[in-house]
Amino acid sequence: MNSLAVEVAGLVMRYGDTTAVDGLSLTVETGTVTAVLGPNGAGKTTTVETCEGYRRPQAGTVRVLGLDPVRDAARLRPRVGVMLQSGGAWSAAYPHEMLRYVSRLYADPLDVDSLIERLGLGGVGRTPYRRLSGGQQQRLALATALVGRPELVFLDEPTAGLDPQARRSTWELVDELRASGVTVVLTTHFMDEAERLADWVHVIDHGRLIASGSPKHLTSEGAENTIRLSAPAGIDTAGLVTALPAGSQVVEQSPGVYLVSGTVDPALLQGVTAWFATQGVLLDAIAVRRRTLEDVFLDLTGRELRS
Ligand code: ATP
Q: Among 160, 185, 189, which Cα is nearest to 174's?
């Protein structure tokens, strides 16, 4: 079996003068949850829609489960679930009806009633699609993607516009998909979502891949975690450094605010607080600041992910 569920090589996609995807290459390992992370307009949706067979590559190649998403669409349809960013549902349809209809297209669908309950749509069976809230439409789209028991699902911004509780239940569902061996490709511009859910993250910007790795790997590269503390201005930073494990550094970032970097672990934290105790100085505040994917994006592009 091919260990790659998705292979994108040198993909180029343009809309008129706009180059949405600019020579993008990435792969998705079978059985992983892989996030395509990038700001609005980075080219995530265009890439995923090309993988789903809705767009033909203008240059480069795309393979999904070893097949061509356009030419082999009929063979892929029963194996791939798709959650589109903008519904695509008939506005007068009822959620139950829609899901039942879609489920009949598959050989071995999930039980529609339990899926509806699971996604908190039990109460809206008789509400037409157009009257559902944004979050309910979103969850229905997710249910539609999952009802056929796919091997691979594409989720485009699955939690955009959801309230925190609906967001958490979507995350749990993705965890369950992973546990049952389904390959999940999701796009997101929420770095916490990518960090929480993904085994592997592809960071894209302006249609190009700028970094790839596990969230742990990405956040441990380059700048280290730091300990940030507030204390009286002008402490003896050189004295503090000598009390800490080799390789540690201390800078007074602004008067009375210090950053300690190095291998941030319990020993370093203890070293810092022990030194202040020997000096008889009470710290005003101390916090371990972990590097996040937001920091990774900022380092790579000089911009915030959400800008
Ligand atoms: P978002 O999360 O906002 O959808 P994205 O990362 O998914 O962003 P795309 O939707 O793929 O990005 O868009 C990439 C670029 O292509 C953007 O500059 C966008 O304005 C442009 N674009 C996307 N779809 C079209 C279209 N149908 N016609 C013209 N330009 C488009």
A: 185
Euclidean distance between CA atoms 93 and 74, whole angstroms: 25
Give the end of a domain, one of 220, 243, 267: 220
pLDDT in tens, the chain (307 residues): 569 999 999 999 999 999 999 999 999 999 999 999 998 899 999 999 999 999 999 999 999 999 999 999 999 999 999 987 665 667 778 888 888 988 998 888 999 998 888 888 888 878 888 888 888 888 888 888 999 999 999 999 998 888 888 888 889 889 989 999 999 999 998 888 999 999 999 999 999 999 999 988 888 765 567 899 999 999 999 999 999 999 899 999 889 999 998 888 899 999 999 999 999 999 999 998 877 888 888 878 878 776 4
Residues flanking ligand 1, CB < 6 Å: 15, 18, 20, 38, 40-46, 157, 189
Same domain membership, residue 260 and residue 151: no
Contact 68, 111 (CB under 8 A): no
- Whole-model pTM: value is 0.81
**Is residue 184 within 8 Å of residue 174, measured between CB atoms?**
yes
The reply to whether 262 falls in a domain is yes
Q: 33 is in which domain, residue-wise? A: 4-220
Q: Which of 22, 45, 54, 301 to mutate to test the pocket of ligand 1 (most atoms within 8 A of CB)?
A: 45
Best residue among 17, 46, 48 to mutate for probing ligand 1, ranked by most atoms within 8 Å of CB:
46
Q: Domain containing 110 — which CATH number? A: 3.40.50.300
Residue owning the nearest CA to atom 26 of ligand 1: 15
Residue having the nearest C-alpha atom to atom 16 of ligand 1: 20
Please count the other Cβ atoms lying within 10 Å of the Cβ belonging to residue 278. Answer: 9
Number of domains forming the structure of the chain: 2
DSSP 253: E
- Cα 5 to middle of ligand 1, angstroms: 24
The residue whose CB lies within 8 Å of the most ligand 1 atoms, and thus the one to mutate among 14, 40, 154, 188, is 40
